[in-house]
Amino acid sequence: MSGYTIAVVGATGAVGTKMIQMLEQAAFPIKEVKLLASKRSAGKKALFNGKEIEIQETTADSFENVDIALFSAGGSISKQFAPEAVKRGAVVIDNTSAYRMDTEVPLVVPEVNEEAIRSHKGIIANPNCSTIQMMVALEPIRKQYGLDRIIVSTYQAVSGAGVSAVKEMKDQAKNMLNNEPFEAAILPSGGDKKHFPIAFNALPQIDLFTEDGYTFEELKMINETKKIMSNDKIKISATCVRIPVVSGHAESVYIEVKEDGASVASIQDLLRNAPGVELQDDPANQIYPTPLDAAGKKETFVGRIRKDRDQENGYHMWVVSDNLLKGAAWNSVQIAESLYKLGLVKAKD
Amino acid sequence: MSGYTIAVVGATGAVGTKMIQMLEQAAFPIKEVKLLASKRSAGKKALFNGKEIEIQETTADSFENVDIALFSAGGSISKQFAPEAVKRGAVVIDNTSAYRMDTEVPLVVPEVNEEAIRSHKGIIANPNCSTIQMMVALEPIRKQYGLDRIIVSTYQAVSGAGVSAVKEMKDQAKNMLNNEPFEAAILPSGGDKKHFPIAFNALPQIDLFTEDGYTFEELKMINETKKIMSNDKIKISATCVRIPVVSGHAESVYIEVKEDGASVASIQDLLRNAPGVELQDDPANQIYPTPLDAAGKKETFVGRIRKDRDQENGYHMWVVSDNLLKGAAWNSVQIAESLYKLGLVKAKD
Lengths: 349, 349
Description:
Two copies of one chain form a homodimer. By secondary structure, the first copy, chain A, is an alpha/beta fold. The first copy, chain A, folds into two domains: 137 residues, NAD(P)-binding Rossmann-like Domain (Rossmann fold), CATH 3.40.50; 193 residues, Dihydrodipicolinate Reductase, domain 2 (2-Layer Sandwich), CATH 3.30.360.10. Helix content of chain A is 29%, strand content 22%. The longest helix of chain A is centred in the middle third of the chain and has 17 residues. The N and C termini of chain A lie close together (10 Å). The mean pLDDT of chain A is 97.
């Protein structure tokens, strides 16, 4: 059987397990899937298309004969092993923040800048979850009217912080509902000093703080947007907040368009026909996206599009997508599909 | 014993029960508290300063000899009984939206526009919960630098929709955690056609939709802000979202100040010394407000103050307060304190 040999690095994680599922739906032939993880997880098994695959420890040699390697095991693992994979002829699609702002590395949302992958030198970066869905929703508007400004406040799901964070939230919720003591050891950021409960709470910190009071998550949204849209001039600010949702990031997005002629109806039309977008925007019938509805789906859902009441060219909208799928695993597999479609990777065997 | 006779209308509700607690801390003498509710709740008992008080059915005659009547039993009850209370010589402090935009009725946040109560004609309106905390946080900045613009996205707690909505959220959460079927019959708005689960979800609808795609909750924030700040010119837009939190509304607020000279440090200084505000803004030590921390407290908490990275006079902040206390019961009792302090109500006996 011919086709790609695909490696998934971080195969037991929240994103890695979704990568395996998304690969089952990929529009390219797959000869073999290699599931890689830490030594601790080696020997465990996972299913791909109903077939049991044993998870192996990630080593440099794991990437021999691999055509495409999907990484989602943390930035330090990517830094360590992505060059090894490239050295062995694999194209790396990296879901960590390790290479996203590297000028040599394309940062790709296929609906927005698929052509950027042509310039890859072995590594292609998958943007941050909260950036991707916003790009999918805004690109059709940018293309038609231009964008001067974005102000976004996020409502981000706990699965973005991993399987253990979801477990902790559920344990906290159970204990709170039973009026029992609860613990917080993971959120807002595993790498930070203090931890706060997320169940029945909202935490205005995702990732660590930088010196100017923004978090790295907020800077990711700002800097990645500029890179993906190839626009250093766009005014963009973000406030990133974690809320007690399992999967499905939501975003309250305010934009100012550059050109005249936009209206709520014209923006709805653009999004109704946009790739990767599902318009859910009918307030009279209470149709709008919610995280619970979006979870498990690959689309980016947009609703509540309305004109700012004071700013001539200002619009507000509500953007929701499954952070583990379009925000991570599905976008990575889509990049692999683009590599295949554009003929940029030939299977080694 | 001398002092005011105070009526609480809606004494068994989420806000009414907090009004009774807040009256225990009021800075004026109280002779008697009359607890009023629907016929259904008549005969139940509640404690005020350790003394059991029987709840009575609200009738026009309930307001005989009442000095101040706090209403929080829904707009239609206020429309029906507030005029009866006024006719009998009581001053009404109304926590519903019934009279807020009435030009004859002052809309008051004591830290912001206490003097407005001098013009009352029997009814004083308590603003919407999400408006109040934003006003407390922004008034010190407005006073110093002026405000051109506000863009707010809210993260609102379920207790704002009443005791039954909180119970429903907890039931949904329990069932979801046990992988059992769950029901949704109340949120996003009891008066609307469809209902969606709020547990582990986020709902971008609070109150009903208006024809231009904004919800009434969003228009409350917009119109009440203009009235409280006596400024029709201010640009203001709101996106109101319900999240699975019991009590404590959070808000991601973006402002543009009018005058030069503002900085993060100067805004922090203003808020550090502002009435009703507690500054919690030290990102390096992960100090910022959260709903769980704010619940049960009377202050408005402000953190994450930072300069917009592109807009010269733009600032972002995170504002949290207990929606049942400063957002409702405590603000109402503060208005009663102002009436007492300014000598606007003489006890009848």
